[in-house]
Amino acid sequence: MKVTSASVDDNDIRQSLFGVDLASVGPGLAPSALTASLGAFAFGYHTAACNAPLDAIANDLAFGGDQGLKGLVVSALVIGGALGGLGVGGVSDALGRRLTLAWTSAPLIAGALMSAYAPNAAVMIAGRFIAGVGVGASSQIVPLYLSEISPPALRGTLNGVRRMAYVFGCLAAFQIGDGLKVTGGEGWWREVFIDATFPAVLLAVGAMTIAQESPVWLLTRQDEASVKQSRKALAILQNIRGRNARAWQNSLMSAAAAPFSIDEGDEETEEKSCPRETPTVSSWGDLISQERNRLPLSIGITLCGLSAFSGANTVIFYASTVFTSVGINNADILTWAVGVPNVIGGFVALALSDKVGRRPLLLASFSGMSACLGFLAFAAFLTPQNMPINAYCADPNLGVLVGALNPPIDDGLYSYPTLSAAQIICVDLGTDLTAMGPAQPEAAVALVTIPLYVLFFSLGAGPIPWLLYNEVFPTRIRARAVSACTALNYAANSIIGATFLPMVSAYGLSGSYGLYTLLCAAGYVFVDRYVPETKGVPLEDVEALLRRTAHGKSLKASD
After folding, report:
1. 80 three-class SS
2. Given Cys at both, which of 136, 204, 431, 492 links 308, Cβ 3.0 to 4.6 Å?
3. Residue 400: which H helix or E strand, with range?
4. Whether residue 191 has pLDDT greater than 90
């Protein structure tokens, strides 16, 4: 049954925002969405917090010469993130989405304060690990919550808002760190971590005061009061009221195969007609054991892996090295080649995901990334002798490009800092690289293709999978399934970071990027054949859409 928002006279001229009927936007939607986006901002800030101060931290805490400890300071966030992302699914099913949002602020604040006041490397690493638990939890709960409170026509837009909050969190950490590095005194880096507490505090306060509980989660509770609260939340978030609210609840419960229905009669009869039980969430074992869960799980996990293995981490390594070799400093690299196209792509995804749909953006993204990586691989193949030396820095004349550390560009890029500084791509620093004359062919190609690659990644393969995870999974398994995808994303990116240099040593940059070219092409084929269009489809109808897809029907939601 299709559910509409509060009725408006047909002769009325309806206001719209970006083509979306404002009648579907309740007064509580914007405050709730902005509160949740603070979690994404904090996520981005913590991810980038070590970029500027890493050397200062190491020197002040007396481990400046220990590259392994430097790597642990950065990678502890990733380890904690995997744990937090995996564990938060059960927490959000038990406590609710709103309380879980508030809960994620606790490790974010505790980890930031431990890092800010760390007297030694051990406390710093522990603080980064604890902050990572909050980072992983927020990377799971924020898109989950937004998908459940959003009107169908705005889910993609709010996911775009979440991603831009993440990007601006990264940029804030970069700017604060760079500013304090220039103007700060002794121990200036501690202020970077103290500032990380502010968005987390605002998240906790907002989640407890102005954010609305997910009406989808409320419907899974086993009491009549929660069913009524679900209808109230629908009215505040999406302007769905009365009979329409009860129809929405019945539609969701029907999709969950619930053995009851809610009477769509008058308001005064609703109390008698409330169900004695409500749909329950599944356990971890049900994710695999129940056959109906396997199709959405296979789509989610495969899309997660293809997004992670698109080669984004390795492109960052390559960009820093090649751009430095033609005389461009690292700050310019991050701003022009990574930051600017990343922001532009994010706004494109925000504007178009609810207009053109998820599939076109993903198809354009994977095809564009494949083309860019193909050009990079071909350029490296033509002039392998001119490529930077990709090896461990055993020679005293070889130095580490520390600027290659920790410039994350999206939800999926938190693993490459797990490499120790001694493993980062190196160049011969005994040579005046800026006096080598015209840029080598591979550098010229990189100057064009790397920004384009980042643009294609940020408009599709970066943000859209996080939206689809929360659309393709039914309510009964959504929280745990998204947790599994979140943890898998961390693990896959860690594998990328750990295997990149050995792969370059064995096959060269041309062979390595050639492999990622094929993986991006595989992503295009997978999306084209198996990923349905979910634009504007109510969450309760997505499972039926997947079943139709499995039987060879059209992948377009409108068919």
Report:
1. helix
2. 492
3. strand 398-400
4. yes
Q: Which of 2-16, 357-371, 422-436, 543-557 has the highest mean pLDDT?
A: 357-371
Query: What's the mean per-residue pLDDT of the chain?
Result: 76
The rounded distance, in Å, linking the Cα atoms of 394 and 258 is: 64
How far is the C-alpha of 227 from the C-alpha of 101, rounded, in Å?
Answer: 21
Per the structure, the complete domain to which residue 37 belongs is given by: 23-212
Judged against a pLDDT cut of 70, whether residue 210 lies above it is answered with yes
Largest distance between two CA atoms of the chain:
83
Phi then psi dihedrals of residue 354, to 5 deg: -95, 0
User: Residues 197, 131: one domain?
Assistant: yes
**What distance in Å separates the CA atoms of residue 466 and residue 475, rounded to the nearest whole number?**
16
Do 445 and 423 form a contact (C-beta atoms < 8 A)?
no
Query: Measured between alpha carbons, how far is 315 from 448 in angstroms, rounded to an integer?
Result: 13
The stretch 539-556 carries a mean pLDDT of: 69
Which tokens is 216 given? 């989808």
Q: Are residues 261 and 301 in the same domain?
A: no
Residues 187 and 232 in one domain: no
Which residues is 426 bridged to in the sheet? 400
* Contacts for 265 with CB less than 8 Å, ≥ 6 apart: 273
The reported pTM is: 0.77
Q: Which residue has the higher pLDDT, 556 or 103?
A: 103
Kindly report, residue by residue over 256-269, the tens digit of the pLDDT.
Answer: 544 334 444 444 44
* Residue 302 pLDDT: 92
Asked if residues 190 and 116 have their Cβ atoms less than 8 Å apart, the reply is yes
Q: How many domains does the chain have?
A: 3
133, 104 Cβ separation under 8 angstroms: no
The reply to whether 84 and 129 lie within a common domain is yes
Which DSSP string corresponds to 233-264?
HHHHHH---HHHHHHHHHHHHHHTT-S-----
pLDDT value for 542: 83
Q: Crossing angle of helices 441-456/312-325, nearest 10°? A: 140
Residues 188 and 311 in one domain: no
Do the Cβ atoms of 36 and 162 come closer than 8 Å? yes
- Between the alpha carbon of residue 293 and those of residues 221, 282, 288, 534, 545, the distances in Å are 21, 10, 7, 17, 13
SS3 of the chain: helix, strand, coil, percent, to 5: 70, 0, 30
Residue pLDDT, tens place only, 266-286: 444 444 444 433 445 566 666
Question: What does residue 17 show for φ and ψ, rounded to 5 degrees?
Answer: -130, 115
**CB atoms near residue 292 (< 10 Å):** 15
